[in-house]
Amino acid sequence: MSTTARDLALQHFGWIGGHANVWAIFRDAEALAVVVAALAAPFRAEQITAVVGIESRGFLLGGAAAVELGVGFVPLGVAGGKEVWGGHDPTDHAAGSGVG
């Protein structure tokens, strides 16, 4: 019987100072592969062209899910209190939005 993504996530989950800590998943290659495959699974039949990941874990998991799905990755971060898509200010039309 194989271990599910849920089981692996719970095995690697912990609390540190009242904050959820899931970083141990990234250290375990099997756990990371199973979790990423499970994250990507609902979208395999969709015709998506990119995965958007929101800062920190979203960059890591989003990038991994994009590779799993064979599509591009767009990081969504926050700089100076406003959202920045793909490293560009979405309101700066001269520079381009970074989203195509």
UniProtKB/TrEMBL annotation:
It comes from the Bacteria. This is Uncharacterized protein.
